Amino acid sequence: MNIGTRKIVVDEAIAQLRLYAETNGAVLRYYDGLPGMTCVGGSDPNRITLEDLARTMVIGSDLRAMDIPWLLEVDADKELAAIPVDARLEDATAGSELFDAAMALDEKFTGHRGFGHAKKSKLLHLKRPYLYPVTDSFIRMTYGSASAGAEFLTAVHNDLVNPANVRDFKLLQVRLIAEPPTSAARLLGEVPTLRLLDILASLLGEAK
C-alpha cells in the first residue's frame, strides 16, 4: 500500500500494527475508546470538554495550562454540529460541502500560540475520528510538504480512496479481526481505516 511518500506491504503493516498495539494499550483504551469504539466524538460530540482534553493527553498532545481555558472557550459549537460524528474523510473530496465544513472547524482552532498542527489534529480526530487524520512529526515526514491544512487532508483522502489501498486496508482489517483473543492488535480491527493509516504513517516516518 502507498501512504504519503512511502510504501509498505500488508505483512509488514500487520507486524507494525501488532507492535503498536502491544506498546500503546493506554492510547487504545483511553484515547481510541477500545474495545467497542466507546464514546465516539466524546461525551458531548458538539462541544470541547475537559474529558476530551484529558483523552488527548494520553496520546501525547502535551497541552499547556494556558491551552486549556482557550480550548474550552472556543466558539465552535456550530461548526461541530455541522459535521456528523460518523462523517468520513473518504467522502470529503476537495471542494465538497463536507471538506469545506472540515476546514471551517479546523480554522476555529488555528492561531493560538503554541497550539500547532499536532495538538489540533489529536483533538479534532477525537471529536470526528472518521474525518480528521492525526498528524505528528513522523507523519509529516511521511507526507512531506503536504503535511498540514487542506493539502494534508486532500493527500490523506487520496490515499484512503486509492483502489489498491482500499483493497489492502480491507485485508488488514480482516486479518486484525482474526488475531487471537489475547492479541492486543485484535482491537485495531475496530478502528476507522483512517486511524490505521495514521498509525502506519507515523511508524513509516519514524523508521526513516
Please tell me about this protein's structure.
- Pfam families: DUF6308 (PF19827).
- InterPro entries: DUF6308 (IPR046275).
- With 208 residues, this protein is mainly α.
- It has one domain.
- The protein has 11 helices and 2 strands.
- It has a two-stranded antiparallel sheet with strand order 1-2.
- Helix 3 packs across helix 7 and helix 8 crosses helix 11.
- The protein is globular.
- The two termini are 17 Å apart.
Cα distance, first to last residue?
A: 17 Å
Q: Count of DSSP helices?
A: 11
Query: What proportion strand?
Result: under 5%
**Unreliable spans:** none
Give keywords.
208 residues, mainly alpha, two-stranded antiparallel sheet
Task: Offer a quick outline of the entry.
With 208 residues, the chain is mainly alpha-helical.
Give the topology, please.
Blueprint: E1 2-3, E2 6-7, H1 10-23, H2 25-31, H3 50-58, H4 67-73, H5 77-81, H6 97-108, H7 117-127, H8 137-143, H9 149-161, H10 163-177, H11 193-206
Antiparallel strand pairs: 1-2
Helix pairs in contact: 1-11, 3-7, 8-11
